[in-house]
Amino acid sequence: MSEHVAVTGGAGFIGANVTRALLARGSRVTVIDDLSEGEAGNLAELEGREGYRFVHADVRDARAVRAALAGAEKVVHLAARKIPRYGNALETLDVNAVGSRVVLELAAEFDAKIVVASTSDVYGKNPAVPFSEAGSASVIGSPKVRRWAYAVSKMYEEQVAFALHEERGLRVSVLRYFGGYGPFQHKGWLGGPQSVFFELAHAGEPLTIHGDGTQRRTFTHVDDMVRGTLLALDADRAVGEVYNLGATRELSINALAELCWRIARDDEPKIVYQSYASLGGNYEDVQRRVPDPSLAREHLGFEAQVDVEAGLESTWDWLREHRLR
Fold this sequence. Notes:
- The chain is an alpha/beta fold.
- The chain is about 35% helix and about 20% strand.
- The chain has a domain at about 5-180 and about 220-250 and about 290-305: NAD(P)-binding Rossmann-like Domain (Rossmann fold, 3-Layer(aba) Sandwich), CATH 3.40.50.720.
- Strands 3-2-1-4-5-6-11 form a seven-stranded parallel beta sheet, sandwiched between helices. It has a three-stranded mixed beta sheet with strand order 12-9-14.
- α5 runs parallel beside α7 (about 255-265).
């Protein structure tokens, strides 16, 4: 019988892509999602497909998660709240801390191998790039800045994962994703700047950049993220490890905005700037975020392969067909 994999947050951006990849390779998949950020439409075409099951549940509901994980040999834990840009910091902390502990403890109890999605945000404001898993310190800002709720909740999640690995033999791998984009990406800022830029360019409206646009990021196509996730899920060597999964080419937000506009339109880019102060919550940004992926390369054979121009063009094509009609 084919392996049974549970995917929490499977109706979200990465989850919808991971679920399809697992089904394509013959796995049976149980998706657990409360649809608070994921979208039912992301999985609609899978309804009725052999080997696929959807469970509508909050990952903080231990009874529902226990029933959903029963019989699963592997788990991909993606359910989370992201940066509370416009509020709801308490919900971010609660879902990411309580929900992750529920999932991790049940995986330990069922002896299921689990891959946990963490984030590049755990490196915080550390100015020394590229970031390495063992060598780069986390530099977190003031507790009065709500954006750090996300980072500290994922740091807690990582600590729970490795405590359970050490004390209860949990077979866990932690993945720190960097700047994902591609099909099924969230709308608005949940999907990242490229999602917002494409939506605004489609409407012919100026692209809004927070700050001065000189902040730099790397952007990783979801196909690369999924490939790295499955490599970690399958590799015994990955147990007890934490890996950066990301592309290494840097782009400024200004450059990203111009690229998105020129992919979407033929006229000159229109760009406006919004101060951080106007965002509320004492919003604080990170100026550079670049991974050192050498450990994932050594252990998993992972290397990001999708060029950002080609990846954004294909993402634009997908958005036009499925979202921006």
